[in-house]
Design a protein that fits this description.
alpha/beta, globular, 7-stranded parallel beta sheet
């Protein structure tokens, strides 16, 4: 099969490309960074260098493809996150329709149906194609954003790196990280990007007649239980995951000079996690859990933690 993978060599796209190439598929990886071309080719894939904002580039790249994995990278430099995501999603939908792609697997999020600005899934409803929506839970790799704060403060939050007008968020000093409005004893499903990649690889080879939704997770636990696993790995077994209230979160975002629309979206995302609605939807779907557990990831995390 000829398969297009977007997302350059990111946390999901890299292992996905490796799996697909190992399966003898003809893989093209889309990246906006020309410096990634050699690395992509070294994997046995073809590089397509261009921007997802360029609809013509996407349509040309998708021509002749049997299947496309489409993802929209979150951008915290966009004043209107929802507008940005809708714009890129529409580019995808138009390009996919123009190229006549028959199989599309879209990376979404497990809170997408609960957060208005993040939900772009409906833009793919009109395609003359078989569409599957992937809704992965909270990524293990998000913990990498917390390394400086774990080292200096000894607690974890949902952190967002913010760069506005050349300023970093100030709530955590020089780390430029903000805690989010979920954590503590909130129950969360975490997921390894490797498990997401395996699930996407499976879906790309299928052709369901109707639009399908697939949730992906690796392990469920409270945020504090997750913090303890990470803490033990780095020699801080007392590590806690601190949760901010919505009001505290909003105050912090204002301090960081985050645009109002973006701040509202970020708070809505965290509130959906804290409410338990994301977990409820995940349980209703009854997905099979992935193979990579948080304790496995914690070993990789500890290596990076010690190096920084």
């Amino acid at each position: 099969m000829k398969i297009i993978v977007t997302g350059s060599l990111g946390n999901i796209s890299l292992p996905l490309t490796q799996v697909l190439v190992a399966g003898w598929h003809n893989v093209t990886v889309v990246s906006s960074d020309p410096a990634k071309q050699t690395a992509i080719e070294n994997l046995g894939a073809t590089a397509a260098i261009g921007s997802m904002s360029d609809g013509s580039f996407l349509a040309d790249t998708f021509k002749g493809a049997d299947a496309v994995y489409a993802m929209i990278p979150l951008s915290f430099t966009e004043p209107d996150l929802g507008g940005y995501m809708h714009r890129i999603a529409q580019n995808y939908a138009t390009a996919l329709q123009s190229a006549g792609v028959k199989r599309v697997v879209l990376l979404s999020g497990w809170a997408a149906d609960l957060v208005k600005a993040e939900n772009v899934e409906h833009l793919f409803d009109g395609l003359n194609a078989s569409v599957t929506i992937m809704r992965p839970a909270a990524f293990y790799t998000n913990f990498y954003q917390s390394i400086d704060l774990i080292r200096g403060k000894g607690f974890i939050g949902k952190f967002l790196t913010l760069r506005y007008s050349g300023l970093w968020g100030l709530l955590s000093g020089k780390t430029g990280l903000l805690m989010g409005n979920y954590g503590g004893d909130d129950r969360i499903v975490f997921v390894s990007p490797k498990d997401i990649a395996d699930a996407v690889a499976e879906e790309l080879l299928l052709l369901p007649q109707e639009k399908t939704v697939r949730y992906v997770g690796s392990e469920e636990m409270t945020c504090n239980e997750a913090a303890r696993i990470i803490g033990i790995a780095v020699g801080k077994s007392w590590l806690k995951w601190v949760r901010l209230s919505d009001k505290e979160m909003l105050q912090g975002l204002k301090m960081a000079k985050v645009p109002e629309k973006l701040a509202e979206t970020l708070i809505e995302m965290g509130a959906a996690m804290h409410s338990g609605k994301t977990l409820e939807n995940f349980h209703k779907a009854k997905p099979k859990m992935g193979k990579v557990k948080l304790a496995d990831f914690a070993k990789e995390f500890a290596v990076v933690y010690q190096q920084k």
